[in-house]
Structure formats: C-alpha cells, structure tokens
Amino acid sequence: MSVKVRFAPSPTGKLHVGNVRTALVNWMFAKGQGGKFVLRIDDTDLARSTAEFEQGIETDLAWLGMYWDERHNQSKRFDRYEAAAERLKAAGRLYACYETSEELDRRRKVQLSRGLPPVYDRAALDLTDAEKAAYEAEGRRPHWRFKLDGKRVAWEDMARGHAEVDTASMSDPVLIREDGLFLYTLPSVVDDIEMDITHVIRGEDHVTNTGAQIEIFEALGGPVPAFAHMPLLVGEDGSALSKRLGSLSIQEMRELGYEPIAITSHLGRIGTSDPLEVGASVQALGDSFAFSKMGRSPARYDTADLDRLNAQALHAMDHKVAQPRLAELDADLGEDFWNAIRPNLQKFADVVELANIVRGPVTPVVEDPAFAAAALAVLPETVDETLWPTWTNAVKEATGAKGKGLFMPLRLILTGQSHGPDMATIAPMIGRERIVKRLQGETA
User: Fold this and answer.
1) Binding-site residues for ATP, please?
2) CA–CA separation, 59 vs 61, rounded Å?
3) Where are the beta strands (DSSP E) in 253-398?
4) Cα 310 to Cα 284: distance, rounded to the nearest angstrom
5) Which of 20, 29, 165, 300 is deepest in the core (most CB within 10 A)?
6) Which residues of 342-378 are buried (b: 16+ CB within 10 A; e: fewer)?
7) Which residues, given as ranges, of the chain have pLDDT below 70?
8) Binding residues
9) Which residues make up the binding site for ATP (predicted)?
C-alpha cells in the first residue's frame, strides 16, 4: 500500500513548534516510506482565515524542507461537505438540535450534580415537526449532531498499540454549527476519504475524537485509515509546555537565527530512541524514522538542546553551502576564514562579528602597554601561516610570559575578546598593518 498522509493547519495564525512537530512526523513517515505528503489548508472558518497566514504556512514548511506533493483548500470543497451531510441526514445519522449554549450548560450542571456524566441526552431526537417549527419561528437555527453507535471502537495505533474508545460514554459530536459553519470533524473525514489518505498522524489528545471519527468514516462508507497518536510536547522539566514556547512560531525561530535542520532534527528526534544529533538532511530524518522508536512518555522540549543542535549544524556546514549567506552579510572572507570561525558559531549571524576581527574595526584591549610594546618589537616582518608559533615564541623570550599569561593578552589585543577562533589561523588573516595598529592601542 502506498502511504499518503496529510497536514491540515488552519490559516488563523502562525505555525508554532507544536503543530510543526505534527507536520514533521507526518512528512518523515511518508517520505521514509516513499509516500506522499498532502498540505490541506483548513480554511473553512472564512471569517478568521487569512491569505497572509496561509502564505506563512507555505513559507515555513518550504524553509524547513517539507515540500508537499498535493495541496488543497477546504474552503473550495464546501459542496463535498454539503453532499456528505445530506447523506448522513438521509441515513438518520445527522440530526438537528435547537438548544442554546446556555441551555446545554444548565443540563450539564444538573447531570454533574446527580453524579452523572455530562453527556448530551439526545433530547432533540424526540422533537416533533411542530416543535422544530416553533423553534424556527423564534429565530433559532439548528446545529447538527452525529448520532454515535454507542459501541467500543478499537484500532491498532501505530504509536500507542491497541486502543479502544467507548463512544457510548461520549456526547454526539456537533458537525455543523448554527451559522452553517462546518466544524473540523466532517470536512476532515470527507477529505481523508476522497483524497485517499492512508494514515492519520496526530497528538494523543485526539484519541477520543478518533473513536467518533471512525464511526463517521464507516457511516460514509469510506475506508478507515490507520492512526498514530503521538505523545505531546512538554517543557524541559516535564511540566506543560509554557505559553511562550508553545506559541513560538517558526517565523520567530527563523528570525532568531535557528537553522532549519536544527529545528527538524530537534522536533523529529525528541522523545525517540535516536540520538539527539543533527541529521544529514530532513530526508535522512525521514529515512531513519520509525514509530517503534517513539517512546510513550511526553517528549521534552529543551531550548538548550536546540541551541546545541544549531551550533552542531553550523560547525559541520561546508563553505559552498555557507557562501551565499556569507555574501549576503558581506562576510565572505574565503574558505579558510569560514573553516577557522565556524567552530565558534552559535548562530549564523555571528559571522559578522568574527569577520570584523579580521577586517576591523576592532578596539584592542591593552591591559599592559609594556607587554604590547615588547610584542610589537619582535613582530616578524613577514606575516604568513608560521606567524603565530614564531611570534609567540619570540614574545615569550622577550617578556618571560607563558601559557595563559602569554596567549590571552595577545588575543585581547588582536581581537578585543577573551575567546574566539584559533589564533594560529586567524592572526595571519588580520595582516601585519592591523596587528601593528592594535598593538599600539589603535582601533583598526
């Protein structure tokens, strides 16, 4: 069987780490199986959906390397949902209800006070045509509920193993609101059937919904897809993911300087038995993905891990890959420069400051003018790859300084920083003229 999955975001906001993880696991599973990934825009809420957010979804997925094989807008398929609703009505599975939200709330409170589960009592099924007409005359418009079979629905979950839901303990789900707006469930099932979706992969908070949706698949006569319900994301301490992290958008992460492969490696491997290391590519992540590697415990989202992976991705990046981005930042000083500074990168934008070490301006930190003068006096006339060992030996003989007392003052003078790239590599790139000026305490 050819695998086909879907990611169905609503264009009512920006993609954040939670829903991108769902998209990524779908993408990895499909591509690892040589299957297809469908982007299905859930824009049935016309009032809240925007073209800007829709474009943002596409931009974010493409930036992360998750290209889609098919793309659909649910707002262009209302006729398909209307037809399905009529079929369910004709079969007696979709029925009109006229209770207001206040009336339903009062009923739930009464049920709870009696120790009963707050399940909808199906009172609307007993309404006569005259009672319905009276409600209509009041200006009420019906919402439509799907009549559940009230049975144990079972499936073999790819992430959780054997799963069962007793739909007798559930309220009949509302599929169409009073204003005629289709809620997510019916369009999702209709599209899964008509688009030949083979696997539905989502968070474990949807397990109960799956029981009801399987009954809708069956009522519409469509094949029931396989399901996988992943453990949810939690914070690094195991608590619920904070609002700040839970709503951290991919656009913000891009602006903060995170690499796409660091994000996909992090979200794709947390909560699995795979080592938390950067993948060679997002396709490679898919090739190695398996639900059998996914644990049952919540996946811990730790920004320290993401920062480590981001640095790892930069440290392994070839100059050919980096060169166009270096050029955009006016920091392409050649392959030797890139190889010298990339072990010091945390974010790609750090290259600008490191490039300035070579080309200036740098304000030297001269803590001991006498030491700087002695170092200047023995500075070789020829500055090449032998500069650093030759010069530091000469400075050692001239001053008696050694170890940190020798190397740190020179680093502070030449770079203005107490840390940074290997001086043996970077010093010749600075050039003799700038070295002289910096030893003299001048900004250069």
Assistant:
1) 243
2) 6
3) 299-301
4) 17
5) 20
6) bebbeebebbebbbebbbeebebbbeeeebbebbeeb
7) 242-247
8) 243
9) 243
